[in-house]
Design goal:
This protein is mainly alpha-helical and about 140 residues long. It contains four helices and no strands.
Length: about 140
């Protein structure tokens, strides 16, 4: 069952990548009208949100580095706390999403779509939060 899920996710990711390469203005979430398109859209949304989250975390680290350039100890302490908080948040996100999608059968399309949507939504919220930290 996990192999089927992985195959579906990889196929959707490959289709998403190919689709995005064809026309960067459109996404797999444009004109969704079937279950397979809904799955493809959820994979795309999750991937996009997770990439933005990584980018915003790296941008935050860069802001912190520029603000604490004169105090290496303070920079290291703050950076350590940021990384610890981010790891704890990722565990909380994954646990909360597991609760949110629990009624769906693991490995089903509904489960995968719900899980992707939850992770995308929570990652977007976290991205906004990270953008708000250490603004000059």
């Amino acid at each position: 069952m996990k192999a089927i899920f992985l195959t579906l996710a990889l196929m959707a990711t490959a289709a998403t990548t190919a689709h995005a390469a064809q026309d960067p203005e459109t996404t797999p979430c444009d004109g969704v009208d079937s279950d397979s398109q809904t799955l493809e859209c959820s994979v795309y949304s999750r991937h996009t949100a997770e990439e933005l989250l990584k980018e915003n975390f790296q941008n935050l680290l860069a802001r912190v580095q520029s603000q604490f350039v004169a105090n290496k100890t303070q920079f290291n302490d703050f950076t350590s706390k940021l990384k610890t908080a981010q790891q704890a948040w990722e565990k909380l996100r994954d646990a909360d999403c597991a609760v949110e999608v629990f009624p769906s059968a693991a490995g089903s399309k509904a489960f995968t779509i719900s899980e992707n949507d939850c992770i995308a939504r929570m990652s977007d919220e976290r991205s906004e939060y990270l953008e708000s930290i250490a603004q000059e």
